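Let us work through a complete example step by step.
Step 1: write down the sequence.
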Amino acid sequence: MTGEAQTVTLITGDRVTVFGDGRVSVVPRKGVTFHSYRTGGHQYVFPSDAVPLLRADRLDQRLFDLTELLAVRAARPSSLPLIVSGATAAPGLSAQRRLPAVRGFAAETPTGSLAARWQATRAKLTAGKIWLDAVREPALDQSVPLIGAPAAWSAGFDGMGVRVAVLDSGIDATHPDLAGKVSARRNFTEGVEDDRDLVGHGTHVAS
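Step 2: predict the structure and record it as tokens.
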């Protein structure tokens, strides 16, 4: 977190300013204390009245991860995207899209209304969990060395002659490495999801 100061709003409605040197400043709230710490390159701020819900696993701790929230703010400067799992309703939140896989829904809440909604959330969130709806990108820096791929490449193994691949996330047959080379395919998750590769992992493995 470098550059000029930036401000994010927590799900509690608290506004936290992050300075370029990593310092943080929180607007005081009566009867509430704030705990801040850094780990793994991420800076967190936890209001004391959110701790019981965190301990009860009702709130995702990324909702208090300033590093994650700054990334979300870049795409959605005036709202907080949320996922409610394990529940069909949550106080003060309206479903924008149902998510049957997690028995819940996606919601997007204006940051200006978070403070007013917080007390209802705090009092009534007795089931399910609220998550930050953040974008995730697969990384290969740890998994590839873990399975010994660099050693296999050094030994000359490059997939030449391999005719069958089992792919976890489908395949993009239009990718330049694969266009015109896929002779057959079979989706063993039919009825659950199609075989389009929406995350890129299966295509990477195949190519």
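Step 3: interpret the result. The radius of gyration is 22 Å.
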